[in-house]
Amino acid sequence: MTSTVTRPGGTRPRAAIAARTLRTDRWWFFPLSIAAILGFFIVYSTIRIFMNKYYWVDDFGYLTPLYSPCLSESCVPGSAHFGTPFGEFPRWLPLGLAAFPIVAGFRVTCYYYRKAGYRSLWLSPQACGVAEPHKKYTGERGFPLIGMNSHRYFFYLAAVVLLINFYDATKAFHGADGGFGVGLGTLIIWVNVAMLTGYTLSCHACRHVVGGRLKHFSKHPVRYRFWTLVSKLNARHGTFAMSSLVTVILVDAYIMSVSAGWITDFRFYN
Fold first, then answer.
1. Three-state DSSP state, 168
2. Cβ atoms of 251 and 169 closer than 8 Å
3. What is the torsion angle, in degrees rounded to the nearest 10, for the CA atoms of residue 185, residue 46, residue 163 and residue 246?
4. Beta strand extents in the chain (DSSP E only)
5. What whole-number distance in Å separates Cα of residue 262 and Cα of residue 246?
6. Residue 54, class by beta-carbon neighbours within 10 Å (0-12 exposed, 13-18 middle, 19+ buried)?
7. Transmembrane stretches, by residue range (predicted)?
8. What is the tens place of the pLDDT at every residue in 44-101?
9. Which residue has the higher pLDDT, 59 or 134?
10. Could you give the CA distance from residue 201 to residue 195 in angstroms, rounded to a whole number?
């Protein structure tokens, strides 16, 4: 006995299986764990960007990436590294409005997060050999999923934000006396920048920008070398994607704790 499932281009027969799944292993653990991580990050980041406080440590030059760049006159003194062209914001408007939509759009449209999100949050499908709850599949040709095709454009903007993160990280070498200094926050910020760099450079869009549309690699040796490097990083794209989520939360939580006075920054050198 067979049933039909609507797919792009027509219908195809699918075996009618009465059981929800014939798998006996813990197939649900991986999608559940990914859903928990993604869900936590979405809730945490949403709360933090609307707090509009505890994002800057003036003594040591720590600025959380969730608020970088801070371009409003509402930003606390010292945190606006690139001026305040936007004037004052109302209290309900996030101060990280300039970059956060770019970063969020880059991750949401990312090929890895599309796979992780579809399987873990949308249950399409949850795992191999497990029936999905949706009766039809229309792909990414209609609203709102057609917006996923904008990933390469978000990549260009995210690359600019990454350069800003590098600049913020250099400002974190600030001592309490105004000179050079290194604290635990400095190291955490640079670890986060390293993970964000790996995630951005390992992106499929980056690989296409570096080596796409070339007919002969032999005529473009420099681009070939970059393409080879990005291809090696691309194999670890998923690792960088999830690791950078963790480091973003870690660095933001640390800066928030120091800024709020809950903890003091451990200093290696002032």
1. helix
2. no
3. 50
4. 2-7, 10-15, 56-57, 62-63, 182-183, 267-269
5. 21
6. buried
7. 27-47, 92-113, 153-170, 182-201, 240-263
8. 999 999 999 999 999 999 999 999 999 999 999 999 999 999 989 999 999 999 999 9
9. 59
10. 10
CB-CB contact of 117 with 144 (8 Å) = no
Which is more confident, 140 or 64? 64
* 125: preceding bond cis by omega (within 30 degrees): yes
Matching residue, tokens 């699918």: 14
User: Which of 192, 203, 197, 188 lies closest to 238, judged by CA?
Assistant: 203
Cα→Cα distances 10→1, 3, 6, 138, 247, Å = 19, 14, 6, 11, 44
Say how far apart CA 55 and CA 244 lie, in whole Å. Answer: 19
Tokens of 23: 């798998």
CB 109 within 8 A of CB 154: yes
* Dist CA 256 CA 259 (whole Å): 5
Specify whether the CB–CB gap between 63 and 70 falls below 8 A.
Answer: yes
Q: What is the pTM of this model?
A: 0.86
Other Cβ atoms within 10 Å of 267 Cβ, number: 16
Contact (Cβ atoms closer than 8 angstroms) between residue 203 and residue 237: yes
CA–CA separation, 26 and 101 (whole Å) = 36
